[in-house]
Fold:
Amino acid sequence: MTDNRSFKDIYEALRERIALLDYPPGSLLSENRLATEFGISRTPIRKVLQRLEFDGLVSVERGVGTIVAPIDMLYLKQVYELRLKLIDVIGEMDANWVSAEEIRKLRQLHDEVVAMADLGEPRELARAYLRFNEAVTRAIGNQPLKDIADRLFYLTARVWPQALPALDWRREVTIFAEEISACATALEEGDLPGLAATRRRHMIDCIHRINDYLGAFEVAGEPV
Amino acid sequence: MTDNRSFKDIYEALRERIALLDYPPGSLLSENRLATEFGISRTPIRKVLQRLEFDGLVSVERGVGTIVAPIDMLYLKQVYELRLKLIDVIGEMDANWVSAEEIRKLRQLHDEVVAMADLGEPRELARAYLRFNEAVTRAIGNQPLKDIADRLFYLTARVWPQALPALDWRREVTIFAEEISACATALEEGDLPGLAATRRRHMIDCIHRINDYLGAFEVAGEPV
DNA sequence: CGTCAGCAACTTGTATACAACCAGCGTACG
DNA sequence: CGTACGCTGGTTGTATACAAGTTGCTGACG
Structure:
């Protein structure tokens, strides 16, 4: 493939592949393979991988390769704790104005998710999850906080998709659709504290469900 | 100079030069000059500069050079707001155990600062400021929060040193020494909420003093 | 005198050759 | 048979040549 895309495109592409588990935790990426895939040399690819390493999504190891970060629950527990706190902070601070167009797209996303109840495509649901995060992140007015929230989200973005096969599919779809709908309404009314409360509740419940089914938050590390 | 130091050393060196105003806001860095100074090629230098760009401390512009970020008060106001919120979050979350040795060094730093009252070396005071931040940051138990706090600190680290010449030197030294002492005591007693309250109060007061003397938080941007 | 084209001397971005390094396998030897 | 050594094919790290871009000066021309 000769794409010749810029840094931002490649960065977001690889980040999405990691979040969607296209690159499973622990898998090995090669700078050469990525370079030929994107039709460029190793140099700009290395820039992207170094950025992903800063983000904590991969670890570049000399002589070995670039390893997609394992899902380390001992560490991600800290990230979840922090995200919970930050959700409240977001609720207390200035908000960005969210256009009616954005809200419309969010409601459309809700309908798409509802329609997934019968199909059972985990990857599509994970994609919807990413788009949902994109939408609610856009409402954060404080720029550095927005950047931080985005980075922290991608650190934990793989946990739910990874756990999905072990959960009750229809139930997860229903609950997620409810969250989207509630957040869309909160955004519509400019009710930031309400948005925060909704997201906080759903995040806690989600962690509980995963924990009940898997005990994931007791164990550490995940094999490939 | 043929130093041959690793990424972390060069990164911290450049970050400190920016924080201490050795590289004034808006000044131009050249990859070639830095490469020859550190006795290496452009490649590892570029890695450092890209990281600093990600941190928001420089902006790399093709055909021009690498520009040390100007002190943009419109943006830094947002960073200060966020840091104030995060200070409270830090106070509510788990703490790292701070060794007696660390506390001793902090009290020694206090004495060094007190001794600066008569000398008037702004750069030395700024260095003490960095070391103080290092010490209190070390008490943050939540790893991602620690990283975030450190990055946000360096975004605003230049504001006080930059304003120092326009402030009352002896007063600033005295207040800063008090802050160090109060924080050392709070750390000693493991009183994280107390530490947060102290830092919050001093941060707000410091902003007020700078604002009173300069009106800095009303204007945006700073020339070279 | 003013203006504008073009050159010159920088800058960063990219491609590439090579150095350093790691893991696994095969083989020779104890 | 077991162990240890070294080779081999891969990886990332570094240096470097070149491409592409910006800025400012310089000089010719209106």
Summary: Residues 219-224 of chain A have pLDDT under 50 and may be disordered. Residues 192-214 of chain A form the longest helix (23 residues). Strands of chain A lie at 28-29, 58-61, 65-68. Chain A touches chain B through 22 residues (CB under 8 Å).
